[in-house]
């Protein structure tokens, strides 16, 4: 699995994350001008190519804006910790 992660710097905001993942296949331009489909990631893969080129890469992209989430409180962190299975079974 190949994964590329980049923090967006255009807005100068470190709370934004853009993730690109290679879907394990390439796409090619067909004679009728359409492109072969990209499968995988439940339809989340798309063909990305340069203008004038006949081949491209199937990639999955995700943009995350962490500003939509508030800062975690200590109680939220404590609640998210894995619990000891011995404690849960009693």
From TrEMBL:
Protein name: Putative secreted protein
Lineage, highest ranks first: Eukaryota, Metazoa, Ecdysozoa, Arthropoda, Chelicerata
Natural source organism: Ixodes ricinus
């Amino acid at each position: 699995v190949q994964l590329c992660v980049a923090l967006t710097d255009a807005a100068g905001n470190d709370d934004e994350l853009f993730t690109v993942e290679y879907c394990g296949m390439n796409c090619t331009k067909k004679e009728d001008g359409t492109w072969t489909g990209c499968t995988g990631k439940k339809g989340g893969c798309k063909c990305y190519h340069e203008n004038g080129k006949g081949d491209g890469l199937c990639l999955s992209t995700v943009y995350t804006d962490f500003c939509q989430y508030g800062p975690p409180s200590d109680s939220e962190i404590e609640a998210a910790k894995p619990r000891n299975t011995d404690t849960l079974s009693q």
